[in-house]
Design goal:
By secondary structure, the chain is α/β, with parallel strands linked by helices. The chain has 2 domains: about 150 residues, D-Maltodextrin-Binding Protein, domain 2 (3-Layer(aba) Sandwich), CATH 3.40.190; about 150 residues, Periplasmic binding protein-like II (D-Maltodextrin-Binding Protein, domain 2, 3-Layer(aba) Sandwich). It is built from 19 helices and 19 strands. Strands 1, 2, 3, 4, 10, 11, 12, 13, 14, 15, 16 and 19 form a 12-stranded mixed beta sheet that branches. Strands 5-9-8 form a 3-stranded antiparallel beta sheet. Strand 1, helix 4 and strand 2 form a beta-alpha-beta unit. Helix 12 packs across helix 13. The chain starts with 17 loop residues before the first helix and ends with a helix.
Length: about 425
């Protein structure tokens, strides 16, 4: 990255490191020598971080401020509202944390600027899952909005995705995972190996599905395929006829009393499972972990048809400039530097740069979370809760087994409006 610019003379500042300029904590002699007024140098940066609550962890913000002097102000909204703000109010944030599937709505507006990979220290270490769509040299399923389709832009101000790698990324990945069904093995008492089980009448009144249309319909499509009813060319971009078939299948199951609930938020999915009201449902990995911390048996079940994956990343508003822009790059670089990655890995997510996260984790933690090996000692969450006892193995096994088993990615369909309308008919049925 080039030297920072003196805000008064507009000349490059050479005697002062970028970090100390951003922190405003350089020695007064250095500040005076650089020609920057002490008041400007000492002025604190606050970055407004728009996203869902997934990554907006108090400990991450506090650690970053301690390391750099830059303050993070979390602006937590729903997944849909993150997209709405990016499209309608791009000056209301300095950093956005959004899912890759939302980019087809945001990028054409020109409200995001391409992130210059030359300014990202660990850009070349970002997992190839994002850049080439592969894990351990094996190409994974790319139905839906696979990150490799939308991660590169043609230029810094481009409204168009690039077909091959460029200097500018739309988003720098933060966290990602591969989702499947959650089950209560203690109540089911038999192996569960297929998505088709979600609609098995054996679980009538004890099944639940996620009521976020763009994600719930993907889970439903996994079920439809697993039942042998239909094979989709792209589950993430259905035709109207395919949407009709999928919703018809769900409505029939609902009318037969299959679903105990259609859940919308994380806590709801946890309480349904922990209470035993539901024994099989769409579930997120950290929600399964939350059930386990209550001492209740719950599995994030690997299924033979594969996983539905999702991924989020940091983007920058097109209007961001000056010290706030420098501060945002500082945060992204810090986020990929290992501490945040290790913190997120310990919650069951995956980090964008695996090497740096590994360096900040204990060997036994890495072996459990990433290599699928039995825990050499109790596995604890970042705040000290026991998540798994010594000897336990992570559901889905290793990183390569889970992320290498992706069937499709969360997506926004071309027929999104029609799909949402039909989904609402299912909810009302």
């Amino acid at each position: 990255m080039s030297d920072p610019i003196d805000p008064i003379s507009a000349a490059p500042v050479t005697g002062l490191s970028r970090r100390s300029l951003l922190q405003g904590t350089a020695g007064m002699a250095g500040i005076l020598a650089s020609g920057i007024s002490p008041a400007i140098a000492q002025e604190k940066i606050t970055l407004r971080y728009l996203g869902t609550a997934v990554n907006q962890d108090k400990a991450i913000g506090e650690k970053f401020e301690k390391d750099t002097g830059i303050k993070i102000q979390y602006v937590a909204v729903t997944t849909d509202d993150v997209t709405k703000r990016a499209v309608t109010a791009p000056n209301s944030f300095d950093l956005i944390d959004t899912e890759y599937f939302s980019l087809k709505k945001i990028v054409p507006t020109g409200n995001l600027k391409g992130i210059d990979v030359k300014k990202i220290k660990n850009a070349d270490k970002i997992t190839p899952l994002f850049t080439t769509g592969s894990v351990a040299g094996k190409t994974v399923g790319d139905q839906g909005t696979a990150p490799k389709k939308v991660i590169f832009l043609e230029g810094e101000k481009s409204k168009v995705f690039a077909k091959s790698p460029t200097q500018f990324m739309s988003l720098i990945p933060t966290v990602y995972n591969a989702d499947t069904l959650g089950i209560r093995p203690d109540l089911i008492k038999r192996p569960i190996e297929s998505w088709a089980e979600l609609l098995n009448p054996e679980f009538k009144g004890k099944a639940a599905i996620l009521n976020i249309p763009s994600i719930g319909i993907m889970d439903a499509a996994m079920v439809v395929e697993a039942m042998g009813l239909y094979k989709y060319p792209d589950k993430g971009n259905m035709t109207k006829a395919e949407i009709d078939l999928t919703i018809k299948t769900l409505i029939e199951a609902k009318k037969a009393g299959q679903f105990r609930a259609l859940w919308k938020d994380f806590n709801e999915s946890v309480s349904l499972m922990a209470s035993g009201e539901v024994v099989i449902q769409s579930m997120w990995s950290p929600a399964v972990t939350a059930v386990r911390t209550k001492g209740i048996d719950c599995n994030f079940q690997p299924l033979k048809e594969g996983y539905r994956a999702w991924a989020a990343g940091f983007g920058l508003p097109a209007t961001l400039k000056g010290r706030k822009l420098d501060g945002a790059y500082e945060f992204i670089n810090w986020f990929l530097d290992g501490w945040a990655g290790a913190y997120l890995n310990r919650q069951g997510y995956y980090s964008a740069v695996l090497d740096t996260a590994k360096a900040k984790m204990e060997a036994y933690e890495w072996a459990y979370w990433m290599e699928g090996k039995p825990a050499a000692q109790d596995i604890k969450s970042p705040n000290g809760d026991v998540l798994a006892k010594a000897g336990a193995v992570r559901d889905g096994g290793s990183y390569e087994a889970r992320m290498g088993g992706i069937a499709c990615w969360n997506a926004v369909m071309d027929e999104n409006e029609y799909m949402v309308r039909k989904w609402n008919e299912f909810v009302a049925a």
